[in-house]
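Blinded run. Sample ID left blank on purpose so nobody reads anything into the name before looking at the predicted structure. Input follows.
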Amino acid sequence: MLFPTLVTWVYFVALADSATGLQQTAYGIGKTLQFVFPIAWALVIERYRVRITRPQRAGLVEGIVFGVTIFAGALALYYAWLNPIGYLSPAGEAVRRKVASFGVQTVLGYAALGTFYSVVHSFLEEYYWRWFVFGRLRERVSLGVAIVVSSLGFMLHHILVLGFYLGWLSPATWIFSLAVAIGGAAWAWIYHRSDSLWGPWLSHLLIDAAIFAVGYDLVRPMLA
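Blinded prediction complete.
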């Protein structure tokens, strides 16, 4: 549960002033270890038989409704309040530097980056946090404890990311971090009820898409 936070600390904080290549290498190695370990553990140690389920109504409706609600709420919050008062403007430069470090200089490149994170990375996070972390926790502790502990673990590395952009003492860092934990709890509950990643993944995808939609408004000046 702490490894993703360590990886985030390395490339967001420890290597913040290092060369882009070094940051990307650390990111790539850390993410590879994070996402390969669970399936390797399941296959080799637990002798788990991988099964891919088709989408079922169970979990899908809850996941999509939750995702659409947060998607709409995030855009409304940004365009109706945060953007007019310039609340996120100080974070804009840091966001643009981070996007540039991925070699993104065009709208198409930003769209590709956003699509990757919204579609692929969101699935990998659900597989890691809900299927692996939460799934193993609920076998050892009560359901409530498993939901709370896995969601707090999911929140930790987001604190580092939000603190990097918004400031460690900013109320927004802690409010949005708490929102991440609440989202993690909702996805764990949906996963538990449906025994499927489809609902949590689609919900996560929609919320990440909202984040990149807001991010586009911040990075638009640097895109060709």
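Unblinding after everyone has recorded impressions. Helices lie at 3-14, 20-45, 57-82, 89-101, 107-137, 143-166, 171-194, 198-219.
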